Amino acid sequence: MSENLDDNIMKYLKEKISHWNEGNHVDENVEDIIDLVQIICSTKTYSEIGRLYSEPFFTLKDLVALDLRGVYQKYYLEDARDEIFARDLHVFSKSVPIEKINEAVAKQYTPYNDGKKATESERIAAGRRFGYPECCIQHCANRKNDFDGYTFPFTSHRACSRDCEESKRINDKVRTFLIELGRNDLVDYREKEVKIFTPQKRYYDILCAMNMDKKKQEIKNREEQAKSR
User: Fold this and answer.
1) Measuring CA to CA, which of 13, 15, 88, 202 is 20 to 30 A from 209?
2) Cβ-based neighbours of 32, under 8 Å, separated by 6 or more
3) CA distances from 117 to 78, 122, 128, 141 (A)
């Protein structure tokens, strides 16, 4: 894979992602990298990277250096127009025509300011714009709840099955490319953080994490109360 890229692009990408574990948003950095690498690996032509209250790992300047196209969007809180709620960077392959880019950005469903849930048709349309496997798109569109689906470490979509061949192909291709970039540390970190969960396992883990956070807060409150006595 790496032999198909320009040497300057490879050099720039290696330098950029060498900072993946810096700062307070390591998991988000990794997710942004995986999203962008999928475009470089030609497993998709469009990704949307972004997060709440902080900048994405990549910038528009980075996309230019990597020979990609991008559109930057900001979303503001309804009751505080000067406070940015989320930042999204729409990333496209150079093969995508400008009119298709404008269409994708305009149609991309965002829940940041209307509070509505995506409909089945919106989920299908969004999945196809992002280039997700059709089987996974249909599964997502008809899922019973937000925890229904399977997560692979190096894909950005929720798979229909842990045996989904297309999801496994994308996962393996991105993983291989990250290793070619010399980022075994990122690969190891991601594989420890993200397993191929069943829906029930993911739901159980989220509940456990919420309970753990609640217990930590209760301990912190007791300690503060003891200090104030």
Assistant:
1) 88
2) 49, 56, 57, 58
3) 17, 10, 18, 12
Place of tokens 């059709």: 134
pLDDT, tens only, 6-40: 889 999 999 999 999 998 889 999 999 999 999 99
Residue type, 197: F
Bridge partner residues of 150 (DSSP): 159
Per residue in 87-131, pLDDT (tens digit) is 788 899 888 888 888 888 777 645 444 555 667 888 888 888 889
With 0-12 / 13-18 / 19 or more C-beta atoms within 10 angstroms meaning exposed / middle / buried, residue 56 is buried
Q: Which residues contact 170 (CB under 8 A, 6 or more apart)?
A: 38, 41, 43, 133, 152, 154, 155
The pLDDT value recorded for residue 195 is: 67
Domain ranges of the chain: 2-197
- Please give the structure tokens belonging to residue 58: 């990549």
